[in-house]
Amino acid sequence: MYLALDGNGPLHAQLTRALKGAILDGRYGEGARLPPSRALAAELGVSRNTVLTAYEQLRAEGFVSARIGSGSYVTPPLHATQVQRPTSTTLPPQSAFARRGRLVHDHGNLPGRAPEGARYCFQYGLPIVNPAVASMWARELARAAAYTSPNYPPTQGLPALREAIGDYLARRRGLVVDPADVVVVSGTQQAISLCLRVLADEGDHAVVEEPQYFAVRELLQLHGARISPVPTDVEGLRCDLLPERSPRLVFVTPSHQFPGGSVLSLARRMELFAYARRHDAWVVEDDYDGEFRYDGRPLAALRSLDRGDRVIYIGSFSKTVFPSLRLGYMVVPRALREDFVTAKWSLDFGSSAIEQAAMASFIASGGFERHLRRSTRILAERREVLMQGLRHYGRGRVRIADSRAGMHVAAWVEGHGAADVERLLAIGLRHGLGLHSILPHYHAPPDRCGLLFGFASLSVAELREALPLFGRCLEEFEREGPAPVAALARQHRGEHHARRQPRQVRGRIRQR
Amino acid sequence: MYLALDGNGPLHAQLTRALKGAILDGRYGEGARLPPSRALAAELGVSRNTVLTAYEQLRAEGFVSARIGSGSYVTPPLHATQVQRPTSTTLPPQSAFARRGRLVHDHGNLPGRAPEGARYCFQYGLPIVNPAVASMWARELARAAAYTSPNYPPTQGLPALREAIGDYLARRRGLVVDPADVVVVSGTQQAISLCLRVLADEGDHAVVEEPQYFAVRELLQLHGARISPVPTDVEGLRCDLLPERSPRLVFVTPSHQFPGGSVLSLARRMELFAYARRHDAWVVEDDYDGEFRYDGRPLAALRSLDRGDRVIYIGSFSKTVFPSLRLGYMVVPRALREDFVTAKWSLDFGSSAIEQAAMASFIASGGFERHLRRSTRILAERREVLMQGLRHYGRGRVRIADSRAGMHVAAWVEGHGAADVERLLAIGLRHGLGLHSILPHYHAPPDRCGLLFGFASLSVAELREALPLFGRCLEEFEREGPAPVAALARQHRGEHHARRQPRQVRGRIRQR
Fold first, then answer.
1. CB contact under 8 A, A200 and B57
2. Residue extents of the structural domains in chain B
3. Residue A171: enclosing H or E segment and its boundaries?
4. Which end of chain A is more exposed for a tag (fewer CB within 10 A), N or C?
């Protein structure tokens, strides 16, 4: 008898699986007798105990019955001999969500992914790496593990963390909130997901800034919402261009427009409130890095001006601590709080209690804000070096978008179109530079050559080495000159694939 | 001038907020001049620096402009004086999801919540508390925090954890899986949520076992699915009663029916596969506590027999380690893997990397399975004491449902209807006993008096004290006799409210 053992786990379990396989395949029909244990053991070169254990397991699971003194027989009714697992690995999408997912999302190829082989990567969306924070965090976690209840956490979040967040928001974001209105979530992604569930149905309209964080756009598309992109300028969202058709939601990044960099001006803030009131719409404030501001204290959050309780505020620890920690929070309108908690319950019951307790202690102890202040100082230095370098090596061709906050800067290489971006990225990579296009963050990308420079992952020394390299890349880029558009586009689609393929396996995913 | 400082955060921030409030309320109209800083400082009894800092912040945010030598003036255009935040705290639901949520879910009152004031609580759904595991976990977390990448984790889960889970499933659940088919999730709740997104649209049909884990039912209702409950008996799901109308999904707990306790027999398993194939339906196997089995080795998972790749397997660490840790996993059909990963991305980008790394190490080091074996031994003792006690003190009126696995036992008090359950619970509480009704886990509760006895949270000594108490409760319960049904129902609704109210505030939420 042929029995292939699969090498996974103990021998008796392998033998049990192999025998089940033989029975299910019909190699042992109903009523067939299994070989005597001694004989099978000898044939397979295993101990008799192994065989006996396997037979016992088959009996326990109902595959065979034992007749005393006469061995093990395959049990009726195994009428349903199954077809083999299909070797095909394609199936049509099984829901509207899955159908949209296949159209919209390519998780092998997310914007902002670090390219392989770049010595210096201007990655955006990552906080500065601070080994001291890692060890502080390890201590907080170990301590929290010792005293946190092993029970299911409260869905809305640990009271201690909601209180710590409330205090923090009052101190740093000018936002006075009742901890009862705070919902702890597993990051901004989840917060947006909750907003969609609670506030919008499939087919509803939503406004996003143009450009916007690509994930907001994709989440809206996955939800089946209709997207109205509204342009931004140096004062943020162009509120005069908000659509006449009432949207359910308006997504904004008022403290630091992503990725453009502007701050929503006070006049526009008031216009936005008036619009939301008129259209009975909800405003979602994504305050992803408003903590870092380089020309004075951080500006107050949009929600702090909101007297109509129309703003859902989203904060995240991904940009302030580190993103592998999936923890963020929302401040929600009182009247919808229970809806948000129900939605959170439906997604994951509640966020990990130990991490919540550790974060509560990290904030309450002052460690979090010390880290923020230190980060802001370091980021300010790096930003200064970056700005100087871009001005100096930009050869008069790089226009830097005004931005006095956050951890990235948008820059445009003038005289080039969108088709040239991939070429510039490829040149960068040849020089060991990880450059990033701004275009994936547009709903309708402009025909311009735009880059995003993150400055949190490179030290001042690294920036000083990387920026002259960027200068050389630009030189080469200009020397080559724009290729004939059609041919180029074709060529770069090819290059793009060749370069991206290996990243799907090893590249780290980075965001914003 | 009247300025109320709110006492939150530093003085200058309080003053900034108060001034903004005055401006937004229209108390300072467009073009009005703010009081000279010296005067305001004297009036409020704060330092002049505090006032200057506040004025500077107002300027930075665009509320006032400064004219040199002449003070600060409220900036035009603040045309949009806002209405006050509504004091009303009710709003109609803002989406179909929210509408269903309000009908279906009461997170203040989840089944299985521990009542206040019970000395002994037969809580179900919680693993045994093992201080050694808490300290092992603290060590694993601290170690993982030191070496885990601070980056966004891969959405599908850390490769090390997916491999550890694959090895574990082969060793303990007879399930050979490719780690590429494993998706790490934040617990069973999220796994079910993902199944609904990927596999069902609003209005689709789904089969659940009757009785079923209440959360599965609620998640289906929240999703807008139509539910077909199918009875269970000692062999698990009555496959002969599966509906003729094709469902998209069939949710089962084959290793240990929740809450009934039976094991899905081999014949039924084959029937279920045949049904799923015929109806092109997906089977969701919720293996929430299949690890704990008291009459031999754990039975193989349903998916191990699945040759058509139709079973989505869900495993959880909530019942095996502790539930405050939100970590679980799914094994998904190869052809739908990307759909599941997209859905996971949409919910939270990915689960916390440090906890994933800690769990991978806990499994790979053998610590996890040592803990499981030890837990199984302890649970077996407790279960034995419980069963003996129920038989002895049940006075011939308590029928114990056959169950050889898991951490709870279902029992029926014969001769009483559903209306009597709350009365029995109230009597229990008077004697310091936390008893739990089985009825919330029914789609259509039968008119019987059923209880769920969890035995993981009580030691053998505690069980020995609790069970005679239960005997006394039963005596009292029987002595009182069933009250006239209508009057009773009214009376108990009242009691029920009186008793549940305080729990909403302080009770811990427990599950299954």
1. no
2. 11-82, 114-129+370-509
3. helix A159-173
4. N
Q: Which residues of chain B does A64 touch, with a Cβ-Cβ cutoff of 8 Å?
A: none
Residue with the two structure tokens 């009523």: A31
Instruction: Verify whether the Cβ–Cβ distance A84 to B307 is below 8 Å.
Output: yes
The per-residue pLDDT for range B126-166, each reduced to its tens digit, is 888 788 888 899 999 999 998 888 888 999 999 999 999 99
Q: Which two tokens stand for residue A272?
A: 């936005």
- Terminal CA-to-CA distance of chain A, rounded, Å? 59
- For residue B165, the cross-strand partners are none
User: What are φ and ψ of residue A209, in 5° steps?
Assistant: -70, 150
Q: Which residues in B95-204 belong to E strands, given as ranges?
A: 120-121, 182-185
Tell me if B282 sits within 8 A of B199, measured CB to CB: yes
* Nearest one of B79, B66, B68, B8 to B33, comparing CA atoms: B66
* Residue type at B5 in one-letter notation: L
Cα-Cα end-to-end distance for chain B: 59
Task: State phi, psi for A366 to the nearest 5 degrees.
Answer: 90, -10
Q: Return the sign of the alpha-carbon dihedral for residues B153, B154, B157, B162.
A: negative
Contacts with A361 (C-beta within 8 Å, 6 or more apart), sequence order:
A140, A143, A144, A160
In this predicted structure, the answer to whether residue B506 has a pLDDT above a threshold of 70 is no
List of chain A residues whose C-beta atoms are within 8 Å of the C-beta of residue B199: 94-95, 98
Interface contact A270-B339, CB threshold 8 A: no
**pLDDT digit string (tens) for B230-276?**
999 999 999 999 999 999 999 999 999 999 999 999 999 999 999 99
Residues in chain A with pLDDT < 50? 79-83, 87, 486-510
* Length of chain B in terms of residues written: 512
**C-alpha to C-alpha distance for B477 and A256, rounded to whole angstroms:** 65
Q: Give how far the C-alpha of residue B31 lies from the chain's centroid of Cα atoms, to the nearest Å.
A: 54
Total beta-carbon pairs less than 8 A apart between chain A and chain B:
405
For residue B65, the cross-strand partners are B73
Encoded amino acid at A470, one letter: F
Q: Which residue of B has its CA nearest to A6?
A: B176
Chain B interface test: which of A275, A349, A505 (most B C-beta within 10 Å): A349
The neighbour count for residue A82, using CB atoms within 10 Å, is 18
Domain spanning B11-82, CATH class = mainly alpha
Q: Are A477 and A449 in contact (CB under 8 A)?
A: no
Amino acid at A258: F
CB A39 within 8 A of CB A55: no
CATH code for the structural domain at B114-129+370-509? 3.90.1150.10
Full DSSP string of A21-56: HHHHTTSS-TTPBPPPHHHHHHHHT--HHHHHHHHH
SS3 A404: coil
Nearest to B299 among A60, A186, A355 (CB): A60
Same fold, A11-82 and A114-129+370-509: no
- Predicted ipTM of the assembly: 0.88
Cα-based distances in Å from B178 to B27, B166, B170: 67, 7, 10
CA–CA dist B330, B168 (Å, integer)? 13
